[in-house]
Amino acid sequence: MNPIRYHTSRPHPWHGLRCGNNPPRIVQAFIEITPFDLVKYEVDKESGYLHVDRPQRTSATPPMLYGFMPRTLCANRVAALSPHAKRADGDPLDVCVLSERPINKSDLVLDVCVVGGLQMLDDGEADDKIIGVLVGDPVWDSARELTDLPPMVIERLQHYFSTYKLHIGEKPTTSIRDVYGYERAAQVVTAAMEDYNEVYPDPLLKPLGGV
Q1: How many CB atoms lie within 10 A of CB 20?
Q2: Nearest to 113, CA basis, from 21, 45, 5
Q3: What is the CATH number of the domain that holds 188?
Q4: Contact 174, 164 (CB under 8 A)
Q5: How many domains are there within the chain?
Q6: pTM for this prediction
Q7: pLDDT tens per residue, range 44-96
Q8: Cβ-based neighbours of 76, under 8 Å, separated by 6 or more
Q9: Is 160 within a domain?
Protein backbone atom coordinates (compact mmCIF):
# COMPACT_ATOMS: atom_id res chain seq x y z
CA MET A 1 0.00 0.00 0.00
CA ASN A 2 1.34 3.42 -0.93
CA PRO A 3 1.44 5.83 2.03
CA ILE A 4 -0.84 8.85 1.92
CA ARG A 5 0.98 12.17 1.88
CA TYR A 6 0.17 14.31 4.88
CA HIS A 7 1.08 17.51 6.69
CA THR A 8 3.19 17.16 9.81
CA SER A 9 1.55 20.27 11.22
CA ARG A 10 -1.76 22.04 10.68
CA PRO A 11 -1.69 23.98 7.37
CA HIS A 12 -2.81 27.59 7.28
CA PRO A 13 -6.43 27.49 6.01
CA TRP A 14 -5.87 30.38 3.60
CA HIS A 15 -2.42 29.52 2.24
CA GLY A 16 -1.92 25.83 3.02
CA LEU A 17 -5.05 24.24 1.53
CA ARG A 18 -6.05 23.72 -2.10
CA CYS A 19 -8.59 26.00 -3.76
CA GLY A 20 -10.41 22.91 -4.98
CA ASN A 21 -10.35 19.75 -7.07
CA ASN A 22 -11.67 21.38 -10.25
CA PRO A 23 -11.99 25.14 -9.88
CA PRO A 24 -13.85 27.25 -10.78
CA ARG A 25 -16.70 24.69 -10.69
CA ILE A 26 -15.61 22.48 -7.76
CA VAL A 27 -13.84 24.43 -5.04
CA GLN A 28 -12.89 23.91 -1.42
CA ALA A 29 -14.33 26.07 1.35
CA PHE A 30 -13.00 26.69 4.83
CA ILE A 31 -16.08 27.32 7.00
CA GLU A 32 -15.86 30.13 9.56
CA ILE A 33 -19.54 30.59 10.49
CA THR A 34 -22.62 28.35 10.57
CA PRO A 35 -26.32 29.31 10.54
CA PHE A 36 -26.31 28.63 14.30
CA ASP A 37 -23.66 31.20 15.21
CA LEU A 38 -24.58 34.48 16.93
CA VAL A 39 -20.93 35.55 16.83
CA LYS A 40 -18.98 36.35 13.65
CA TYR A 41 -15.83 34.26 13.62
CA GLU A 42 -13.03 35.01 11.18
CA VAL A 43 -9.67 33.42 10.44
CA ASP A 44 -6.75 35.35 11.88
CA LYS A 45 -4.61 36.09 8.82
CA GLU A 46 -1.31 35.51 10.64
CA SER A 47 -1.97 32.44 12.78
CA GLY A 48 -4.71 30.74 10.78
CA TYR A 49 -6.83 30.18 13.88
CA LEU A 50 -10.43 31.34 14.19
CA HIS A 51 -10.93 34.40 16.34
CA VAL A 52 -13.97 36.40 17.39
CA ASP A 53 -14.44 39.23 14.92
CA ARG A 54 -17.58 40.59 16.57
CA PRO A 55 -20.86 39.46 18.09
CA GLN A 56 -23.69 39.60 15.55
CA ARG A 57 -25.29 42.98 16.18
CA THR A 58 -28.76 42.04 14.97
CA SER A 59 -30.95 38.98 15.44
CA ALA A 60 -30.09 37.73 11.94
CA THR A 61 -27.85 34.71 11.47
CA PRO A 62 -26.27 33.60 8.18
CA PRO A 63 -28.74 31.43 6.25
CA MET A 64 -25.97 29.18 4.93
CA LEU A 65 -22.54 27.95 5.90
CA TYR A 66 -20.17 30.87 5.36
CA GLY A 67 -16.42 30.92 4.81
CA PHE A 68 -13.81 31.43 2.13
CA MET A 69 -11.89 29.68 -0.64
CA PRO A 70 -8.25 28.93 0.16
CA ARG A 71 -5.57 30.41 -2.10
CA THR A 72 -7.84 33.16 -3.43
CA LEU A 73 -7.55 36.93 -3.00
CA CYS A 74 -9.92 39.75 -3.88
CA ALA A 75 -7.65 42.33 -5.47
CA ASN A 76 -7.39 44.13 -8.82
CA ARG A 77 -8.87 41.44 -11.07
CA VAL A 78 -11.86 40.89 -8.81
CA ALA A 79 -12.44 44.64 -8.49
CA ALA A 80 -12.41 44.96 -12.30
CA LEU A 81 -15.45 42.65 -12.44
CA SER A 82 -17.41 44.93 -10.11
CA PRO A 83 -18.04 48.17 -12.05
CA HIS A 84 -19.16 50.22 -9.03
CA ALA A 85 -16.24 49.24 -6.77
CA LYS A 86 -13.39 51.57 -5.86
CA ARG A 87 -11.19 48.57 -5.04
CA ALA A 88 -11.46 45.01 -3.69
CA ASP A 89 -11.43 44.21 0.01
CA GLY A 90 -8.06 42.38 0.05
CA ASP A 91 -9.47 39.25 1.70
CA PRO A 92 -9.89 35.70 0.38
CA LEU A 93 -13.01 35.16 -1.71
CA ASP A 94 -16.10 34.50 0.43
CA VAL A 95 -18.35 31.51 -0.24
CA CYS A 96 -21.81 30.53 1.03
CA VAL A 97 -22.63 26.81 1.01
CA LEU A 98 -26.08 25.23 0.99
CA SER A 99 -26.46 21.91 2.81
CA GLU A 100 -29.70 19.97 3.32
CA ARG A 101 -28.48 18.48 6.59
CA PRO A 102 -27.59 20.97 9.35
CA ILE A 103 -23.84 21.42 9.90
CA ASN A 104 -23.42 23.12 13.25
CA LYS A 105 -19.66 23.42 13.61
CA SER A 106 -17.13 25.60 11.85
CA ASP A 107 -13.33 25.34 11.44
CA LEU A 108 -13.75 22.64 8.81
CA VAL A 109 -13.26 22.21 5.06
CA LEU A 110 -15.72 20.88 2.51
CA ASP A 111 -16.10 20.56 -1.25
CA VAL A 112 -18.47 22.97 -2.98
CA CYS A 113 -20.10 23.05 -6.41
CA VAL A 114 -20.30 26.70 -7.47
CA VAL A 115 -23.65 27.82 -8.93
CA GLY A 116 -23.63 31.65 -8.72
CA GLY A 117 -22.97 34.61 -6.52
CA LEU A 118 -23.81 38.04 -5.18
CA GLN A 119 -21.97 41.16 -6.30
CA MET A 120 -21.71 43.04 -3.03
CA LEU A 121 -20.12 46.36 -2.16
CA ASP A 122 -18.91 46.97 1.38
CA ASP A 123 -18.07 50.62 1.91
CA GLY A 124 -17.23 50.88 -1.79
CA GLU A 125 -15.07 47.74 -1.88
CA ALA A 126 -15.82 44.66 -4.00
CA ASP A 127 -16.80 41.87 -1.60
CA ASP A 128 -18.43 39.18 -3.75
CA LYS A 129 -20.18 36.24 -2.12
CA ILE A 130 -19.93 33.07 -4.17
CA ILE A 131 -22.88 30.67 -3.74
CA GLY A 132 -22.53 26.91 -3.96
CA VAL A 133 -23.92 23.60 -2.78
CA LEU A 134 -22.25 20.86 -0.77
CA VAL A 135 -20.80 18.23 -3.11
CA GLY A 136 -22.62 14.94 -2.55
CA ASP A 137 -25.58 16.59 -0.83
CA PRO A 138 -28.62 14.27 -1.17
CA VAL A 139 -30.94 17.16 -2.12
CA TRP A 140 -28.80 19.88 -3.74
CA ASP A 141 -25.99 17.92 -5.42
CA SER A 142 -27.58 18.20 -8.88
CA ALA A 143 -27.69 22.03 -8.79
CA ARG A 144 -25.46 23.65 -11.39
CA GLU A 145 -27.04 27.11 -11.74
CA LEU A 146 -28.44 29.67 -9.34
CA THR A 147 -31.89 29.07 -10.87
CA ASP A 148 -31.73 25.49 -9.55
CA LEU A 149 -32.11 26.89 -6.01
CA PRO A 150 -35.39 28.22 -4.54
CA PRO A 151 -35.65 32.03 -4.94
CA MET A 152 -36.27 32.39 -1.19
CA VAL A 153 -32.83 30.96 -0.43
CA ILE A 154 -31.21 33.71 -2.47
CA GLU A 155 -33.49 36.37 -0.99
CA ARG A 156 -32.40 35.37 2.51
CA LEU A 157 -28.75 35.72 1.52
CA GLN A 158 -29.43 39.14 0.00
CA HIS A 159 -31.23 40.28 3.13
CA TYR A 160 -28.51 38.98 5.44
CA PHE A 161 -25.64 40.65 3.63
CA SER A 162 -27.60 43.86 3.21
CA THR A 163 -28.18 44.14 6.95
CA TYR A 164 -25.52 42.16 8.85
CA LYS A 165 -23.42 45.26 9.49
CA LEU A 166 -26.35 47.61 9.94
CA HIS A 167 -26.29 50.00 12.88
CA ILE A 168 -29.65 51.45 13.87
CA GLY A 169 -29.88 55.10 12.87
CA GLU A 170 -26.97 54.90 10.43
CA LYS A 171 -26.86 54.36 6.69
CA PRO A 172 -25.99 50.81 5.61
CA THR A 173 -22.42 50.29 4.38
CA THR A 174 -23.21 47.19 2.31
CA SER A 175 -25.31 46.83 -0.83
CA ILE A 176 -26.07 44.03 -3.29
CA ARG A 177 -25.50 45.38 -6.80
CA ASP A 178 -26.15 42.20 -8.77
CA VAL A 179 -27.13 38.54 -8.46
CA TYR A 180 -25.38 36.32 -11.01
CA GLY A 181 -25.23 32.74 -12.22
CA TYR A 182 -22.39 30.30 -12.75
CA GLU A 183 -20.76 31.97 -15.76
CA ARG A 184 -20.01 35.19 -13.85
CA ALA A 185 -19.20 33.26 -10.67
CA ALA A 186 -16.57 31.28 -12.60
CA GLN A 187 -15.00 34.55 -13.74
CA VAL A 188 -14.86 35.86 -10.17
CA VAL A 189 -13.34 32.65 -8.80
CA THR A 190 -10.73 32.58 -11.57
CA ALA A 191 -9.89 36.25 -11.01
CA ALA A 192 -9.47 35.66 -7.27
CA MET A 193 -7.13 32.72 -7.91
CA GLU A 194 -5.05 34.83 -10.29
CA ASP A 195 -4.97 37.74 -7.83
CA TYR A 196 -3.70 35.34 -5.15
CA ASN A 197 -0.98 33.87 -7.37
CA GLU A 198 0.28 37.34 -8.20
CA VAL A 199 0.65 38.37 -4.56
CA TYR A 200 1.68 34.97 -3.11
CA PRO A 201 3.78 33.26 -5.82
CA ASP A 202 6.16 31.53 -3.37
CA PRO A 203 6.21 27.79 -4.27
CA LEU A 204 6.91 26.98 -0.61
CA LEU A 205 3.29 27.92 0.06
CA LYS A 206 1.97 25.16 -2.19
CA PRO A 207 0.25 22.43 -0.13
CA LEU A 208 0.81 18.69 -0.19
CA GLY A 209 -1.78 16.63 -2.00
CA GLY A 210 -4.66 14.89 -0.33
CA VAL A 211 -5.65 17.74 2.02
Answers
A1: 23
A2: 21
A3: 3.90.80.10
A4: yes
A5: 1
A6: 0.93
A7: 999 999 999 888 877 778 999 999 999 999 999 999 999 999 999 999 999 99
A8: 88, 195
A9: yes
